[in-house]
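queue> pop job 88
queue> type: inverse folding (structure -> sequence)
queue> payload:
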């Protein structure tokens, strides 16, 4: 029972007020930024996802704060000062988060546009159907990569190049956890979508407001809780539960060869299903 009380699921409910506060600290700025760009799109007559989704960029530093609070509560089992932890993560990761926001914006805008475009063409030509399928798979892979980017950014002292390199490697290195996170987030996303589609009048406003308040926090909590263990096993531990992985003789040999053949500019090498330091030391952000 004690173990369950410290589980991520139990702590979601016992620390819900703190999680809700952190969620609002992200959701409100995101809603404001998105509202501004949506308003601009209507006033300018350029009603397109390219303009609608621009709010992702300035909101991403706030998302870093949300991820940090959730990491502390769900993974590290800490009782944190939400405001202080959120603001510290916002400040320390501001520049990288803006860049991450730009990348996320490009992925969302381009994927959405390409899927709509090729999805329409696929109805009349089987060749475009193949292209449409490729874009679907690519978009899912990029979405999974975005699961990892914020967590790696706020947790490890890595260059942007290494953050994205490691995030891409983790798409394939932790497939089972990625599928679990994707399915769970997909379920709640579909539920929100149905609620918005079928709500009418004043109820639609209520559903949209509740979705803005709760959805980002819940989705992020699921993602961080599911992928955190895989990240620690692959990149480095940020909790006290550091159970060392014991390598076989064959794995030691492969790891030695990988280090010898690695690019000297790389901070990490992916080998034996793990990311290992090469040879520079990686610091963990507290």
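queue> result:
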């Amino acid at each position: 029972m004690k173990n369950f009380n410290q589980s991520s699921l139990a702590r979601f409910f016992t620390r819900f007020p703190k999680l809700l506060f952190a969620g609002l600290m992200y959701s409100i700025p995101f809603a404001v930024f998105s509202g501004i760009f949506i308003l601009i799109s209507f006033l300018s007559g350029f009603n397109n996802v390219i303009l609608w989704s621009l709010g992702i960029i300035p909101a991403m530093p706030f998302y870093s704060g949300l991820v940090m609070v959730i990491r502390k509560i769900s993974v590290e089992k800490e009782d944190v000062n939400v405001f202080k932890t959120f603001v510290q993560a916002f400040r320390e990761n501001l520049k990288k988060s803006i860049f991450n926001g730009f990348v996320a914006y490009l992925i969302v805008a381009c994927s959405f546009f390409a899927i709509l475009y090729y999805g329409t063409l696929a109805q009349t030509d089987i060749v475009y159907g193949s292209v449409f399928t490729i874009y679907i798979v690519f978009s899912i892979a990029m979405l999974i990569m975005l699961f990892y980017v914020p967590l790696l950014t706020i947790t490890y002292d890595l260059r942007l190049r290494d953050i994205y390199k490691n995030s891409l490697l983790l798409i394939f290195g932790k497939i089972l956890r990625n599928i679990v996170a994707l399915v769970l987030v997909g379920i709640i996303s579909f539920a929100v979508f149905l609620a918005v589609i079928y709500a009418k009048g004043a109820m639609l406003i209520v559903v949209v407001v509740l979705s803005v308040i709760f959805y980002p926090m819940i989705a992020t909590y699921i993602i961080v809780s599911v992928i955190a263990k895989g990240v620690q096993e692959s990149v480095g531990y940020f909790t006290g539960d550091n159970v060392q992985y014991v390598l076989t003789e064959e794995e030691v040999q492969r790891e030695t060869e990988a280090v010898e053949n690695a690019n000297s500019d790389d901070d990490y090498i992916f080998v034996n299903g793990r990311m290992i330091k090469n040879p520079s030391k990686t610091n963990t952000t507290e």
